[in-house]
Amino acid sequence: MATLLHYPLCPFSRSIRLALAECGVEVTLTEERPWEWRPAFLELNPAGALPVLITDSDGPISGAYAISEYLNETVSGEGEAARGFKLFPGEPVARAETRRLVDWFHRKFHDEVTSYLVEEKVYRRHGPGGGSPNTEVVRAGHENLRYHLAYLGHLAETRPWLAGEAPSFADLAAAAHLSTLDYLGEVFWEDYEPVKSWYALLKSRPSFRPLLADRVAGFIPSGSYADLDF
C-alpha cells in the first residue's frame, strides 16, 4: 500500500486525500509537520513541501500538481473502485479549464488567503520559536477571502460544478482550502449562499468523511466543520 505524507491542515494534502479517495486508492497516512524540515523528509522532497506520495512501484511523487497528474494517468476514472471519477474530465478545453482553476486555488487562493490565515494561526504557533498571529496579516486574509468567495459564488451559480458539467480536481482543490479554513472558523458561509450550497455537496461525499474526522492538537474545529447541515 502506498503512503501519503501529509499534514491535516495542509490544503494541498487535503486535495490529494480527496483525490485518492475519489479514485478508490487506499493509502497509509503519515503526518509530517512541514515547519520541522526533517532531513529525512527533505531527502524525499528537497522543496520541503507537502504532500508526498510514496508509491510501491514508482517511488516518491512530490506535490499536489504532480500527484494529481500521476493519478490522472494511472487510476483516475478507471475500474469500478474509482466510481468513474475523473480528475480532469472532458475534452481538451474542459481539461484546461479544470487545470486553470486548480492553479487558481492552489496558487492564487493559497497565496492570498490560506497562507495568511492557516500559516499565521497554525504554523507560526507550532513553528520554531512559536508566536502569536500577525493581526494585520490575518485581516488581509479575511479581506482577500471575500473576493475569492465572490468568484466562487459566480462559478457555483453559472455552472453545475466549478469547472463545468462534471466534478473535477478543481472542486477538490477548492474544497480542500475551504475545509481547512472552516476548521478554524474563518469562512463567512452566511454571506455566500451559492458557495455554501456547492460546498455542502462536496462535504456530503464519502471521500470527505476522513477529513471531517480530523482533529489537530491545540485547535477545536468550528461548529460548522463536521456538520453536514451547516
How do the helices and strands line up, and which of them pair or pack?
Blueprint: E1 2-6, H1 11-22, E2 27-31, H2 39-44, E3 52-55, E4 59-62, H3 64-74, H4 92-126, H5 135-158, H6 169-183, H7 193-203, H8 209-212
Parallel strand pairs: 1-2
Antiparallel strand pairs: 1-3, 3-4
How is this structure best summarized?
By secondary structure, this protein is of the alpha+beta class.
Notes on the structure:
The protein is an alpha+beta fold and 230 residues long. It has helices spanning 11-22, 39-44, 64-74, 92-126, 135-158, 169-183, 193-203, 209-212, and strands at 2-6, 27-31, 52-55, 59-62. Strands 2-1-3-4 form a four-stranded mixed β-sheet, with helices on one face. The termini are far apart. The model has no long low-confidence stretch (mean pLDDT 93).
Number of helices: 8
Structural class by helix and strand composition = alpha+beta
Mean pLDDT: 93
| Major sheet: arrangement of strands | 2-1-3-4
Give the SSE order as H and E letters: EHEHEEHHHHHH
The low-pLDDT segments are: none
Rg: 17 Å
The proportion of residues in beta strands is 5-15%
Q: Number of DSSP strands? A: 4
What is the CA-CA span between the terminal residues? 35 Å
- Global outline: globular
Fraction of residues in helices? 40-55%
Major β-sheet annotation: 4 strands, mixed
